[in-house]
Design brief:
Layout lengths: L1 H15 L17 H16 L4 H10 L6 H4 L4 H12 L6 H8 L18 H14 L8 E2 L2 E2 L9 H11 L2
Antiparallel strand pairs: 1-2
């Protein structure tokens, strides 16, 4: 769906409905794919470091997504996966060190003795999860139109199907 949005739908919306539609892309972590959280954290880190590069970084991440599927991360530490994700950011000229700095998990307790210290984007992830829960989003992809889940649009929807739906529903 990301490719369809990037190459077909967003250009179509800009051309046909420049003032009628506000497109909001929200990350939705899939907890049954544990490395999904790490990938979404990388997106959150990019948003903090270079917000205007989030979409190009997302494309790079989708292009490399199989490298972060379960079987390809199972034998590395969380910080090793974060390092690989931060390295991807360099493909769109984002500072790898800044991204990794937000992702890295400390290997020592916090000053107060806490053991679940999170990282520099933990609070961002909490907000993502809370907002999506409030919106009724449970799976990916989920499309909402005027705040209502629209189940007729799915990951297999083509650009032409999206365009037909948009033309029928945007007045």
């Amino acid at each position: 769906m990301f490719a369809t949005l990037s190459t077909s739908i967003l250009p179509y919306l800009s051309k046909e409905y420049p003032r009628n539609v506000q497109f909001i892309f929200r990350q939705q972590i899939q907890p049954w794919h544990p490395s999904s959280t790490l990938c979404h954290e990388a997106g959150a880190a990019v948003l903090r470091v270079t917000p205007e590069s989030f979409w190009p970084f997302s494309k790079v991440l989708f292009d490399h997504q199989k490298e972060f599927f379960d079987v390809n991360v199972v034998n590395e530490t969380r910080n090793e996966t974060y390092k690989r994700l931060a390295k991807l950011a360099t493909e769109v000229d984002i500072d790898e060190g800044k991204v990794y700095g937000l992702l890295e998990i400390a290997d020592k307790p916090g000053e107060d003795g806490s053991l679940n210290t999170g990282n520099g984007v933990t609070n961002d992830v909490k907000v993502m999860v809370k907002v999506n829960r409030l919106m009724g989003v449970h799976v990916t992809p989920t499309v909402l139109f005027n705040g209502v889940v629209e189940n007729s649009i799915s990951s297999s929807s083509t650009g032409a199907e999206w365009q037909a739906w948009l033309d029928e529903n945007i007045k």
